[in-house]
Amino acid sequence: MFEAAKVGRSVSKQDFKAQRDELRTQLLEAQRELTESRIPVIVIVAGVEAAGKGEVVNRLNEWLDTRGMQTFAFWDQSDEENERPRYWRFWRTLPARGEIAILFGGWYLAPIEHRFAGHCDDAALDAELARIVDFERALTQDGNLVVKFWFHLSEPDQKARLKELSRDDRSRWKMLPKKSKFSEQYQLFEYIAERVIRQTDRGIAPWYLIEAEDKRYRDLTVGKTLLQAIRARLKQPLPIEPPATADPLELPESTSAQITLLDQLDLSQRLERDEYKTLLKQYQREVNDLAWRAYNQKRSIVLVFEGADAGGKGGAIRRITSAVDARLYRTIPIAAPTDEEKAHHYLWRFWRHLPRAGHMIIYDRSWYGRVLVERVEGFASETEWRRAYSEINEFEEQLVENGAVLLKFWLQVSEDEQLRRFQDREQTPYKQYKITDEDWRNREKWPLYKLAVNEMVARTSTEYAPWTLVEGDDKPFARIKVLRTLCERLRTALDNSAAPVPGSGITRCGYQTTQEAT
Amino acid sequence: MFEAAKVGRSVSKQDFKAQRDELRTQLLEAQRELTESRIPVIVIVAGVEAAGKGEVVNRLNEWLDTRGMQTFAFWDQSDEENERPRYWRFWRTLPARGEIAILFGGWYLAPIEHRFAGHCDDAALDAELARIVDFERALTQDGNLVVKFWFHLSEPDQKARLKELSRDDRSRWKMLPKKSKFSEQYQLFEYIAERVIRQTDRGIAPWYLIEAEDKRYRDLTVGKTLLQAIRARLKQPLPIEPPATADPLELPESTSAQITLLDQLDLSQRLERDEYKTLLKQYQREVNDLAWRAYNQKRSIVLVFEGADAGGKGGAIRRITSAVDARLYRTIPIAAPTDEEKAHHYLWRFWRHLPRAGHMIIYDRSWYGRVLVERVEGFASETEWRRAYSEINEFEEQLVENGAVLLKFWLQVSEDEQLRRFQDREQTPYKQYKITDEDWRNREKWPLYKLAVNEMVARTSTEYAPWTLVEGDDKPFARIKVLRTLCERLRTALDNSAAPVPGSGITRCGYQTTQEAT
């Protein structure tokens, strides 16, 4: 693969000067158009040691307008990063629409390092690379331009460059810990690099191999390639989306007679007041205890509450929170996104507020808005909400891999009971703020919501993050079902804290890297 | 002081129920008005152990609408927090306009703990309390409502409550490390608490002492007090601002004949091309070396560049960044604030992006916009930009206390030279993006800018963060002056890394708390 980057291309000083100013003018022009088109750009700078990745980035900082451009290196991980799913640190660096992020190594660094150090085998590396492909697809489908550079040096050239650098105090290379010195096993590194590039070189996010021996050739080629990639992206304002494919799970939207999961719920289930009081006390004690145990074991608890309007989400949530120490939980009601949030992938706002390990976080509505209200109201296009299912599954898998216990509740009420509650809200002073015209309008879309819920549950109820459907006509019954389910899941999860990381069961390369590297 | 909170007030179950619903309705109504008026609210919950602070917060979460309300506890500090000025963790939790933040202990916890543990004396405690008063003043002047609750229990009542809690697994108290048990030295704790309350009980941010023996009385009183405070704030849409006082530094704005610091610069200073090349190479090598040393010593470098339009900021910055490893520095060009940023104090956006220890961060324009462009263009009111001087000094002091080396450069050019550069920019393709109509308009306000700069330098050039005025008509001269100044400051600062924390020289209570507490 690297043969093409070993032909010894070079550019004379004179040629470099002649081409530089023109290139710079064009890059600035392209950058301005990017900003206007609100296209986010991710540039990944990777490659062999001593290829001059830092020099290239300095060059880009010189040629481009630094407004709206940020550079990120991923050295030692902070404990805040360690206590969240691994990709949290990357989501933190994603550019807003119209901005550019230059990432040293990006999400490629950890898997390469781990494989190089022998912490995982090729199969685990491949599993992680598959995740990367999914991640980059999600980014490009969301409009990002992803440009990946791999800088290559032949073994003799690298040796010579390192020798030169070792005489120079100004080199980062000298400061790296021994274990990160890829150059000492050039063959192994090349083997891994080739595997990584081959598996992640997709049309939507291609790798560009750059011969790094001649610095002028290297920098000019990077500039020209970037310019070309930006121009191509500008001509194609929307990412190519595959047509939605029909599959067995798909439901016709036109019918309201469709039988859904929700129709099979027995909403007549009830709980007597005395029994309710006894069970409430019992489960609240247990939830309190389990929340402390989770804190001590550094396991996060993530609860998602979705449900029909007036389905009883708030009441169920309060029965949990009133039992838990106020310093341990956080309720996140999902409101309209801010402009910073709108300028990113729709999952960005949820990544952004992920708690540190050991805390309970309760989402009052959640990322499922994408496949519920945004789908029904047409705020998201069909391709957008369709691809959201797998994006959500991937997101939740990462949460669970990180040790979170994730529970998702759908609270369902009958149309009659909802009507009764709406009327009650209008009549009770301190409940009035809960009812708006929108609630009445949503009621008319009941059949559409039912179909959306049905598909959501079918597509996102996974072994590691199952949905619990809650019969909500009787509030005591619903609250106890929520509490009991929560206690049961936590009990099981926390007892097995010594067990291997849950999730899909696939071992992936790249976890818990704490060493420093380029 | 606490006598008033020891009179044994109580509320019967019946009375509580009778008052609760009405209070709740009123609180919700007040909260809605707060949101509409875009007033941010900070509620601090502090007091003796076992007073039920967690219960009170749970109660507020039950009574209020949790949308737009967040609770924060300040337990163990993360390394990301440790590597930034101490108040970074508080700035992270400040509510946006129209939202509510409930803080356990808030900025009071660390100084109380430190004084209690004997890590500092009363004088150091007082110094920290003075900082708190400044901080809370800045918040209230920016529109925040700050409500501080102190929950009190007499020693026998506390002992009884702790005994009760110790029989109960559900108590946070049992999990606290021994050292944090304030209750074991009740007298000392009361002494410190009284000092803290006395010195920070200001009209703009008063303390409310709440007798915590009877839980119903406690919760009702908190609810009513909060309601009262919100209502009072709603009636007074703008914070009271003292009239701007004339002082020796003040300059008449009407005159353009005023002699300023800038007039005293010798703009004719020049550097020959050969000398420039030699010095540039020499200082760039040194900057590279010093940046690595700073990284290894975990000292941040913060550079602020302000200057006339076309004053050469960009060129000077590039002469630094091209010498430093791209992984070590970040350039932050200050653009228009986002809506999240506009919803906070104007310094919030700068706190937000503070780097972790050991990195170089370069501000291309900065928080000084408040006293420059915002002053001259009238974007900030006179009281706003006037109080910005001390807010900025306080901010910079915290940066320096945290170990940052802070340098501020003002790049000045003559009117003639500026004109020449404007014309050059219009004629050079890749420089055209740098020149806008606004630049031409700003030029007409030259005398006003000169006065603003003069006052800025006079009021914010401190021993720990001095301004360097740079004669910018000759670019080589200016660039070398910037590089030389940077090298000199870094050399001195890094040599003295073992010296005591720089800054105002005042020892303050509350540093480097890592222990857990309420």
CATH C-level label of the largest domain in chain A: Alpha Beta
Q: Name the beta content range of chain A.
A: 5-15%
Task: Estimate the global geometry of chain A from the Cα principal axes.
Answer: elongated
* Oligomeric state: homodimer
Compute the gyration radius of chain A: what is it?
Answer: 27 Å
Low-confidence stretches of chain A: 242-251, 512-518
Q: Cα distance, first to last residue of chain A?
A: 23 Å
Domain Polyphosphate kinase-2-related (chains A, B): 11-235, 271-492
InterPro entries (chains A, B): P-loop_NTPase, PolyP_AMP_Tfrase, PPK2-related
Protein name (chains A, B): Polyphosphate:AMP phosphotransferase
Organism (chains A, B): Halochromatium glycolicum
Molecular structure report:
Chains A, B: It comes from Halochromatium glycolicum. Chains A, B: One of its GO terms (molecular function) is polyphosphate:AMP phosphotransferase activity. Chains A, B: It holds the Pfam family PPK2. Chains A, B: InterPro entries: P-loop_NTPase, PolyP_AMP_Tfrase, PPK2-related. Chains A, B: This is Polyphosphate:AMP phosphotransferase. Two copies of one chain form a homodimer. The first copy, chain A, has 518 residues and is of the alpha/beta class. The first copy, chain A, has two domains: 2-235, 3-Layer(aba) Sandwich (Rossmann fold), CATH 3.40.50; 261-495, Rossmann fold (3-Layer(aba) Sandwich), CATH 3.40.50.300. The first copy, chain A, is 47% helix and 11% strand. Chain A contains 19 helices and ten strands. Chain A has helices at 13-37, 53-63, 79-82, 88-91, 109-116, 122-141, 155-166, 186-200, 215-235, 273-296, 313-321, 339-342, 348-352, 373-376, 382-401, 415-427, 437-443, 446-460, 475-495; strands at 41-47, 69-72, 100-104, 145-152, 207-211, 301-307, 329-333, 360-364, 405-412, 467-471. In chain A, the strands form two sheets. Chain A has a five-stranded parallel beta sheet, sandwiched between helices. Chain A has a five-stranded parallel beta sheet with strand order 7-8-6-9-10, sandwiched between helices. In chain A, helix 1 runs parallel beside helix 9, helix 6 (122-141) crosses helix 8 and helix 10 (273-296) packs parallel to helix 19. The longest helix of chain A is centred in the first third of the chain and has 25 residues, at 13-37. The radius of gyration of chain A is 27 Å and the shape is elongated.
